[in-house]
Amino acid sequence: MADSSPSTSGTATPIKDSTTSSHSVPITAVTSAPPPPTGPTSDPEKKAGAPPAYSAFSPWRRRFILIVVTVAGCFGPLAGNIYLPSLPVLEQEFHASATAINATVSVFMLTFAVGPLFWASFADWKGRRPLYIISISIYIVANILLAAVPANYGALVFLRIVQAFGSAAVVSMGAGTVADVTPPKERAFAMSIFLLGPQLGPVLGPVIGGALTIASWRWIFGFLGERSHAYPVPNSPSANIVKIAIAGFALWVVIILMLPETLRARVGSGKLYAESGFILFPLKLSSSLAPESERGPPPPKPTLLGYWRLFSYPPIGIVTFNTAMLYSTYFAIAVQLPTELATRYNWSSAGVGAGFLAVGVAMIVGSMAGGRFSDWRRARAVKASPDNHVDPENRLADQIWGVFVCAGGCVMYGWFVDASLHPAAVLVATFLSESCPPCLSAKLPVFLFFFVLFSAGFGMNWVFVATTAFLTECVAQQAAGAFALGNMLRNPGAAIAALVIPSLVTKMGSGWCFTGLALLDLVLVGSAVMVLRIKSPGWRAARKARMAAMAAAKPAGQK
């Protein structure tokens, strides 16, 4: 498997990222002291004689691609969480126990965790566009069947698996698409925007699902339509199906008509599409190949051994573990929060759903701030480097600040819940309660919970942005696969947290339970970040030497 360092963009020489080309620096800059100015710009990655631009797409075209994949990335998490408020109703409708209905959530999460490994490996090999079209088609069909079939538990489980499998593709492929069109110097901020889709889905899902369930749970999937007298809906089954599937279908049409192929191993920097209009015509499932001289090096064929080689590279394995730990911490708070708000403070269902909007705000701020900071830090490192070369592991040191913030929010949540109100929170809550709706008033610690949720969500996303940028730069030829691998343990970790946290809170109390979880994050994740800072240069050098030896040992002409 060919090595892809951060400075390699996964492209052939004519379109290689300028950070890798030390020969592009003018000779006068080497033989004279101090170096002559290269122009009004101080960007060391835009020196005279630099290779062509990383992407031939215009800035507006790149923004459009980013918007499309961000919206697409929201669909899977939204589908996984939108029917959570209707679980009690589903128990009655399907005549199933709470455990059985909760299993439909678990199978969705597990499929959503493993599915991207399949899709991403082929997306890195054969292209993004055809797999977008195929996977979203599966997602739409699954939604239509979920809306149309009778209340059969076996069908529900099977179709939830199909729904998760179809929607799982767009998250990992979206990260690969962003990496295809965004140079490394801007990648963390672009990734911070893209991550808003997958991460706001779980936040918006319960809010939207709760609002739909007020009318009828069928507004979520359209089960049984008007056939149930217990939950009548004034719309026909076909009308409900159209309402459910229309968003996915609209996205599918946009992708077919407007989303070009971006895989650099097929189209290079995108010159094939750069001069064309937004509407792709004639319509094709696949794409034409760029001239071989403009294409990036082909990635290895997808195999389990290839994934193992990626995972066994210590930085990738470590950030995969870090991501799972912090997401599990956030999910532990998210699972326990509705119970605390409902039992301790008598919040209504609508109020609990609105409380999760604080997490959404935190994710937006954490992503945007973390992305800007990571790109700024990388630019400083490039400027300080004599050859304008920066390893992708440079981004991982940024994680430590997010770990501290997330752990702090976790501790505050536990003890503030046990203590009910902090004096400062009472004063602020009194002011806020005057303008809050009834479900949020009555001396509730509004500021307290919003602040705690903000801390946890902000810290988590700060880490995720740096991690995602690292993964796509570390193995540029397999950006989608690396992202899928890096997020593989998130959902299993969240499932474990949801299983054990309620019993731990009952036995230990919220304060000690979440303090222990925060200490676990600080010790394990914090130590891992420090190890990465110290050991990453040696690991990267060893990997480069190993990959070079493997490439030299291959017979001539073998890929």
TrEMBL record:
It is a multi-pass membrane protein. InterPro entries: MFS, MFS_dom, MFS_trans_sf. Pfam families: MFS_1 (PF07690). Residues 1-52 are annotated as: Disordered. It comes from the Eukaryota. Residues 1-24 have a biased composition (Polar residues). PROSITE patterns: MFS. It is found in: Membrane. One of its GO terms (molecular function) is amine transmembrane transporter activity. Keywords: Membrane, Transmembrane, Transmembrane helix. The chain crosses the membrane at residues 64-84, 96-119, 131-151, 157-179, 200-221, 241-260, 310-333, 345-369, 400-432, 444-464, 509-534. Residues 65-538 form the Major facilitator superfamily (MFS) profile domain. One of its GO terms (cellular component) is plasma membrane. This is Major facilitator superfamily, MFS transporter superfamily. It comes from Colletotrichum destructivum.
